[in-house]
Amino acid sequence: SRIELGDVTPHNIKQLKRLNQVIFPVSYNDKFYKDVLEVGELAKLGTKMLNHVLNICEKDGTFDNIYLHVQISNESAIDFYRKFGFEIIETKKNYYKRIEPADAHVLQKNLKVPSGQNAETQKTDN
Asked: Which domain holds residue 86?
């Protein structure tokens, strides 16, 4: 079966808070939920934050890769990061201590253009 989530609104923000408490190993404060309402949708907030980090890394110019961990069952997060060019490169067993499944995928995004390619070729290949 497929579950689809709609927009976060003042009417369902408490449901989001409860879902997060059950699903995630961290607790988010009330400011987080206020920010979610101001942005409108959780995905937009995640996109904004990730773009901010990617822009900082691009401006700095010294980073070759970015790595992150995602719970293996979190398909929406994996799809989200893939849209930004991240790829699964490894799976770590028992990465999480208080959630099931405990395994995590390691995702990587290459920031440097591989030798032999120019930036335009890399953009059209993706």
From this structure: 64-114
Same domain, 84 and 47: no
Pair (57, 6) in one structural domain: yes
- Could you tell me the strand order of the sheet in which 104-110 lies? 65-71, 104-110, 87-92
Asked whether 69 and 102 are in contact (CB, 8 A), the reply is no
3-state SS assignment for residue 88: strand
Q: Report which of 48, 82, 58 is spatially closest to residue 68, judged by C-alpha positions.
A: 82
**Residuewise pLDDT in 10s, the chain (126 residues):** 555 556 677 888 888 888 888 877 677 788 878 777 765 566 677 787 888 889 889 889 899 999 999 999 988 889 889 999 999 999 999 999 888 999 999 999 999 866 665 555 444 444
Among 109, 48, 102, which Cα is nearest to 81's?
Answer: 109
Distance CA 125, CA 85 (A): 11
